[in-house]
Amino acid sequence: MSSQDILLEVKNLHTGFNIDGRVHHAVKDVSFSVKPKEVVCIVGESGCGKSVMSLSVMNLLPKHNGKIDKGEILFEGRDLAPLSEKEMNAIRGKDISMIFQEPMTALNPVLTIGYQLDEVLINHTTISKEEIRRKSVSLLKQVGISRADQIVNEYPHQLSGGMRQRVMIAIAIACQPKLLIADEPTTALDVTVQAQILELIGKIQEEVGMAVLLITHDLGVVAEMADRVVVMYAGQVVEETDVDRLFYEPKHPYTKALLHSIPKMDEKRDVLNTIEGIVPSLKNMPEKGCRFADRCPAAMDVCREVDPLLGETDKGHAVRCFLYEESFPQNSDKRAEVQ
Amino acid sequence: MLIYTLRRILTMIPILFLVSIVVFTLALAMPGDALSGQINPADSSPEYIEEMREELGLNDPVYVQYGRWISDIVQWDFGRSFTHRMDVTELIGTRLPNTILLSVMSLVITYILAFFMGRYAGRNPYTKGDYTIQGVNYLMLAIPSFVAALFAIFIFAFQLGWFPATGSVGSGLETGSLAYWGSKLYHTFLPALVLGMLVTASYTQFLRNDIIESAQKDYVRTARAKGTSENEIYNKHILRNSIIPIVTLFGFDIASIIGGAVIIETIFSYRGIGELLVSSISNRDSAVTMAIFLMLSIATLIGNLLADLLYGIIDPRIRVE
Fold it and tell me: Which has the minimum average pLDDT: A262-266, B71-75, B149-153?
């Protein structure tokens, strides 16, 4: 596929944190891509590197200890990883924008909604103040906020969590970005509001014609929103495919376990299915072998000895597991041409 | 806002009443009374002293004396200073402008220094500049103000000769002329600097720590995600939040600065309220002492009210509707 058809391409990304003088990789060798107007979901448990990956794309890692070590983040063919803060600022909020998990704290408590919305337009456009304010009001209306002309003069604490997330979405889409990164946008909201916000993101995505990189741990959200899905585990991509195949033909034991842990409507159970154990912490990553081996019901001896690779089993379906011969290093020529 | 302010002023009345009782009790507890400072017991007959005590009402029951005092005060009569031979209101009136000038100047110096040092240190934490500022801070916090005042006089007045060592204005200047005011400011600078030292150090530290903490907040990440420049982030997003705790301290510091002025004014022989208080205490001039104590209490109460009102202005979350 030609590079024009790809909006964002993350290649062999390694993002590390410096803990007690040692670099630990929260994201290790992650590659995936997003096409224009496509919705790609990144799923995985807490602590598997989803958020760090998305912050790496925006170059918003905590400055004192987080760092992109290796790899490329190609946005429209241009590598973002080595860009300076100033060059990044020209892209953030304009071409790529982001909404976060916690709408309650994501807005500045002492600045008005209007100011915070105007700011992104001031940063990236040259239109007059009055026009900016008019645009802000219409953006608030676009994300379904009534009384928009009053809300611009109000402060975040006067709004509910769902309203604040709508404001965040308004800020994110203000400059009609090509890519919206949504890092668990509905996790902190209650269920009815979750549905509204997802619906809004879907609606806006069509209106603006942007691609969405949606980070979530909720497979319900994936089913609803995604075109393609990247499953992450312990900082690595373990499976990548389109949404139908993910639900109907999951390959990686981790994906299967995730799907198995969703309670079913027509099934009566007292105990929920879970995956035994937890994601290994940054400091306790296995040195070699498959990172899921300790929790995997199908683990073999080889899994603890050799690092499996992400190999394409069928067209557009890649998996990192020794149950599939494509993951063996000796077959690496077949490796990950997944796009 | 107006109703809130009025309500707050009304609630001050019972507090002031309690304060007045405390002040009165303290004055009673001081050794001697108005009379013992005025006459020499060695050459006055005990009968005469007793007569005078009766005449001045010092033999009346305590509650009668208190009632007399408080009803005079309500009529803006704070009694007479017998050492200065003038009405207390008039006496305080001559001294108060000096103290106000000293306090305001001290606050201005404090805020300017703390703002720039705190902002720099908060934005560049754990750098050489930050460590230098912190070192200066600890010095300012650790040295008692009377020691610092002596050092300041020694270094800046005697050794370098940059500032006058004592007094509040140069002699032979026409009151109200430009040279007069210039001389006043010149005389006030050094005591104001020393007076504000402690507060400067704590403000700088507050501001620095709050900026460092605020820089980690989610809303800062949001601002970055919008493409806002680092300067804007610090000057608008972070500073607006970090200034809040400092503004609330402002009200309390009005009281602490006036309190500190007592020591500083005495050392610099600066003719203000503080110097008057100290001399009145040693002269047993209880009318003056009580009036000043009462005044300081009122200043504290007003300072607190001011802090609350300012807090509301700067932090929308607690704005009074």
Answer: A262-266
Strand partners, A317: A314
Q: For residue A237, give the H/E element and its range.
A: strand A236-242
Q: Residue A59: what residue type?
A: N
pLDDT of A290-312, one tens digit each? 888 888 888 888 888 888 988 88
Selecting from A116, A120, A155 the residue whose C-beta is nearest the C-beta of B227 gives A120
* Residue B126 burial (CB count, 10 A): 10
Rounded to two decimals, the ipTM of the complex is 0.86
Q: Find the DSSP H helices in chain B.
A: 2-29, 46-56, 62-74, 88-123, 128-142, 145-152, 178-214, 218-225, 230-232, 239-267, 273-282, 286-314
**Phi and psi of B269, rounded to 5°?**
45, 45
Neighboring chain B residues of A109 at a CB cutoff of 8 Å:
219, 241, 315-317
Tens-digit pLDDT profile for residues B102-111 = 888 998 999 8
The angle that helices B286-314 and B273-282 make with each other, rounded to 10 degrees, is 150
Side chain identity at B3, as an amino acid letter?
Answer: I
The contacts found for B55-58 with CB under 8 angstroms, 24 or more apart, are B58/B33, B58/B34
Q: What is the CATH number of domain B92-318?
A: 1.10.3720.10
Which of the pair, A271 or A146, is modelled with greater confidence? A146
Residue partners of A232: CB distance under 8 A and separation at least 6:
A30, A42, A43, A44, A48, A49, A50, A53, A238
d(CA A336, CA A172): 32
Answer whether B47 touches A (CB < 8 Å): no
Q: CB–CB of B190/B269 below 8 Å?
A: no
User: How many Cα atoms occupy the beta-carbon half-sphere of A179 within 13 Å?
Assistant: 25
Helix (H, G, I), strand (E, B) or coil at B168: coil
Return the number of other C-beta atoms located less than 10 Å from residue A183's C-beta. 21
B226 touches chain A (CB under 8 A): yes
The residue ranges of every structural domain in chain B are 2-86, 92-318
Query: Can you give the pTM of this predicted structure?
Result: 0.80
| Residues B283, A265: Cα–Cα separation, whole Å | 90
Best residue in A110, A111, A180 for a mutation probing chain B (most B CBs within 10 Å): A110
**How far separated are the first and last CA of chain A, in Å rounded?**
7
Residue among A224, A212, A215 nearest A97 (CA): A212
B231 close contact with A: CB closer than 8 A: no
Chain-chain contact of B225 with A98 (C-beta, under 8 angstroms): yes
Tell me the residues of chain A between 290 and 329 that have a Cβ less than 8 Å away from chain B: none
What whole-number distance in Å separates Cα of residue A294 and Cα of residue A217? 21
**Set of chain B residues whose Cβ sits within 8 Å of the Cβ of A98:** 225
CATH 3.90.930.12 fits A3-95+177-334, yes or no: no
Whole-angstrom distance, CA of residue A288 vs CA of residue B209: 42
Domains of chain A: which residue ranges? 3-95+177-334
Query: CB contact, 8 Å: B43 with chain A?
Result: no
Q: What is the DSSP letter of A137?
A: H
Residue B70's φ and ψ, nearest 5 degrees, are: -70, -35
C-alpha separations of B173 from A303, B183, B184 in Å: 94, 9, 10
CA dist., res. A214 & res. B280, Å (int): 74
What are the chain B neighbours of A86 within 8 Å (beta carbons)? 229
Question: What's the gap in Å between the CA of A235 and the closest CA on chain B?
Answer: 22
Q: In chain A, what's the furthest Cα-to-Cα distance?
A: 67
